[in-house]
Amino acid sequence: MAKKYIVRLTNEERTKLLEITKKGKSAARTIMRANVLLRADANGKGLKDSVIAEDLNLHVGTVEKIRKQLVLDGFSRALYRKPQEGTSRKPKLDGRAQAKLTALACSKAPDGHARWSLRLLANKLIELEIVDYISHDTVGRALKKQVTAPSQ
Q1: Which residues of 32-57 are buried (b: 16+ CB within 10 A; e: fewer)?
Q2: Rounded to two decimals, what is the model's pTM?
Q3: Where are the domains positioned within the chain?
Q4: Could you tell me the CA-to-CA distances from 46 to 88, 92, 107, 137, 152 in Å, in that order?
Q5: 3-class SS at 152?
Q6: What is the pLDDT along the chain (152 residues), one digit of tens a residue?
């Protein structure tokens, strides 16, 4: 079966890949991908996927995927990781909730307590339905980030 995605590198791309592999200062993943692309280049060695996979101790599917990324997504996408789009999780406390937490922490402690503890604050935020769940560790980190002016 003929290859569907044929790698054809320009002289500039080949030079960049050779530089990456010879310096050895890049991430291991990048160096490995550079080696795959150099070996798969139709203008150069043009080796079969099975030979490349055996030489570099990779799975044939990995070699196919790297070739496909080069042809479809371009040189830099085949070589480097895709940057993450935004954060993985939304912050538990937005600006409004953060302000309410700060006001609560500065208020008088509940009866039977000399001061607010992180667990008391977390429970109060849940009780007031500001958040559905929050740990005392998160409350502590949120309060630690608050910048307060020194009292005089």
Answers
A1: bbbbbbbbbbeeeeebebeebbeeee
A2: 0.59
A3: 11-79, 95-144
A4: 39, 52, 72, 55, 74
A5: coil
A6: 567 888 888 899 999 999 999 998 889 999 999 999 999 988 877 888 999 999 999 999 999 999 999 999 998 899 998 888 877 788 888 889 999 999 999 999 989 999 999 999 999 999 999 999 999 999 999 888 876 655 54
Residue 113 to residues 80, 85, 110, 116, Cα–Cα distance (Å): 55, 44, 6, 7
Instruction: Please give the C-alpha separations between residue 4 and each of 8, 39, 87, in angstroms, as whole numbers.
Output: 13, 16, 35
Return the closest-CA partner of residue 30 out of 46, 40, 17: 17
> In this structure, what DSSP letter does residue 93 have?
S
Token match 């055996």: residue? 54
**Separation between Cα atoms, residue 116 and residue 110, nearest integer Å:** 8
Read off the tokens for 125: 């935020």
What gap in Å lies between CA 136 and CA 101, rounded to an integer? 12
